[in-house]
Design a protein that fits this description.
- The protein has 113 residues and is an alpha+beta fold.
- The protein is 20% helix and 36% strand.
- It has 2 helices and 8 strands, in the order E-H-E-E-E-E-H-E-E-E.
- The strands form 3 sheets. Strands 2-5-1-6 form a 4-stranded antiparallel sheet, with helices on one face.
- It is globular.
């Protein structure tokens, strides 16, 4: 089974996230700049779009909890507007070249030793 982890994060956390992904053995991921509105200091900012980054990772179910824990430990800085993390369980993932479904519980993760 494959899970999808999506994280909205502040730019200053990009290097920390890259380090965590490397330490956890995650090989493939996507990061892109996003804009949106949200709560900051208990107010809804309706006048400006805020820039953050979105990280998307597909990973084997066996490694989801460990990776989410490491990401949250890194991202938690006790301030509002810091972003959110979501997990979608049991997504259908296909290899575009072979058209085969990917379902390895160790997908996109270093080999367990």
């Amino acid at each position: 089974m494959i899970d999808k982890i999506s994280v909205i994060l502040q730019e200053q956390k990009l290097e920390d996230i890259e380090r965590i992904l490397s330490e956890e053995g995650v090989r493939d991921f996507t990061i892109y700049q996003v804009q949106g509105r949200g709560s900051h200091a208990n107010l809804i900012d309706t006048h400006a779009l805020n820039t953050h980054y979105q990280l998307d990772i597909f990973i084997g179910h066996n490694h989801t909890q460990t990776l989410v824990g490491a990401l949250l430990d890194t991202l938690c800085v006790s301030q509002e507007g810091n972003g959110v993390t979501s997990v979608i369980r049991n997504v259908l993932l296909f290899d575009n070249n072979t058209k085969n479904q990917i379902s390895s519980p160790s997908y996109n993760h270093k080999l367990d030793v």
